Amino acid sequence: NIADCGTCGNLCRAPNGVAGCFMGMCGIGSCTAPYANCDMMVANGCETNTQTDANNCGMCGNACPARPNSSPACVAGACALTCAMGFADCDGDAMNGCEVDIRTSAANCGACNRLCNPANAMGTCADGACRVGGCNAGFADCDMDTATGCETPTATNPANCGGCGTVCPTRPNSVATC
Fold it and tell me: What is the C-alpha radius of gyration for the chain, rounded to an integer number of angstroms?
């Protein structure tokens, strides 16, 4: 009798489960899913949520492994990983962890598969933001907008001849060229 287990008034309890009385000793009859008694202690009952506990994922004793640049996680009873800040699992392979530093990767700048490739320029990724790292020969970034890249052809643009802001003078009865 769980109300008088072993002695009068000794009430058996099993948090997240069903208490039982076994040969005069309180115990756990069963656990309520998704909880389990992983530490085998009666006092705290069925203490482990096997759907979210990375040390007991899906069942007691199933520890999720540590992977590079991440923390182990348990989601719906299956091992997963939580990427460290600035890293991402771009290839979807949990075995190699969060393999990409999205703060510096030009191929994954700020997020997976976000290419940093400004027009007529060499793109660089700094702190997860795409920046113009250097313009191709004959081009300049006169508007200082990474979205447009190196938009100005300095070899043919009379308003930016040879560099930004270098204006070719106009002469009477002529058209300025660069």
Answer: 32
Phi, psi angle pair for 147, to nearest 5°: -60, -30
CA distance 41 to 13: 12
Here the tokens at position 144 are: 């200082």
Q: Report pLDDT for 10.
A: 92
Note if the pTM is more than 0.90.
no
DSSP 178: -
Supply φ then ψ for residue 102, to 5 degrees. Answer: -75, 0
Neighbouring CB atoms inside 10 A of 144's CB total 8
Q: For the chain, give the percent of residues with pLDDT over 70.
A: 100
- Tell me: the pLDDT tens digits for 25-60? 999 999 999 999 999 999 999 999 999 999 999 999
CA angle at 100 for the pair 94 and 104, rounded to the nearest 5°: 170
Query: CA torsion angle for 120, 125, 127, 131 (degrees, to 10)?
Result: -10
Return the amino acid letter for 81.
L
Please name the residues in contact with 127: beta carbons below 8 A apart, sequence gap of 6 or more. Answer: 103
96 is written with which tokens? 């190699």
